[in-house]
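Lab notebook, bench 4. Still working through the backlog of constructs that have no structural model yet. Next entry is a single chain of 276 residues. Request: give me the structure tokens for it.
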Amino acid sequence: MNCLKNKTNCREAILLVAFGSTVNSSAHLAYDNIEKQITYAYPDAKIYWAYSSRFMLKHFAKKNIKKFDIEQALEQIIADDITKLTVQSVYFNIGKEHIKLCEKLQNLIEEKQYNLTEIKLGLPLLINDQDVGEFVANILADVPIQTDREEAIVFIMHGSVSGYGEKIFNKLQCQFKAINENYFMTSIEGQHRFDECVKNLALKKSLHKIYLVPLLIAAGFHAKKDIAGNEANSLLSMIHYENKELEIIPLLKGLGEYNDIAQMFIQRIKDANGFL
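Model written out:
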């Protein structure tokens, strides 16, 4: 996946901003599919990528992999004579990364006085009840699982200490439970950690099979280590420790790999508000 897609005589662009992942193969599957779907929807726009995590950027640099941070991407955009720009993150919900992105954009625009006639900013994947309802319907349609009464699905968010992240978690949990009492939610970080979920699963004595479904844009390090890893504190290991008879099946696929989810990001681009 290149930092930009060259298209001649193009004055409009979309800058996609990701946190980044150290597991390049997983990130490519998710990010490439998001880019492919956006390219279909906006064939005349140049697509650029930027990464917001300093840790990830240092990781890429050590491996001599060229990736842009937000400022570098904007400099390239200006050098390419772009006049209209939409910035769209591939974040799951409003949290510290989205807030940092807004602040970074504001500071750079004020400092650099970019020669752009228009800058728009799209919101993350999940914002309100309608988004949550659409997301739940999409993920249940896309995940190839048909559960019976002796099977369960655990959906795993990254999690957040922010109040907004907690609201999204609670909305998702409420909607999943309304559909099936054997749908569970947990998060890698935040208030709803694995131990709480494991205790709730242990109360379901009839279960014989559990699917682990990450609600992560890319199924990278967190999916492979924290959810399905061999370490004692992974979700898989913690569930197995409580009941060694359970069959536990991790479905390590990033949200960005699902076309329906990529289409939701396209809608965010369409709904983007003016930033300049």
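Notes after review: Residues 125 and 264 are 7 Å apart (CA to CA). Residues 1-6 have pLDDT under 50 and may be disordered. Flag for follow-up if needed.
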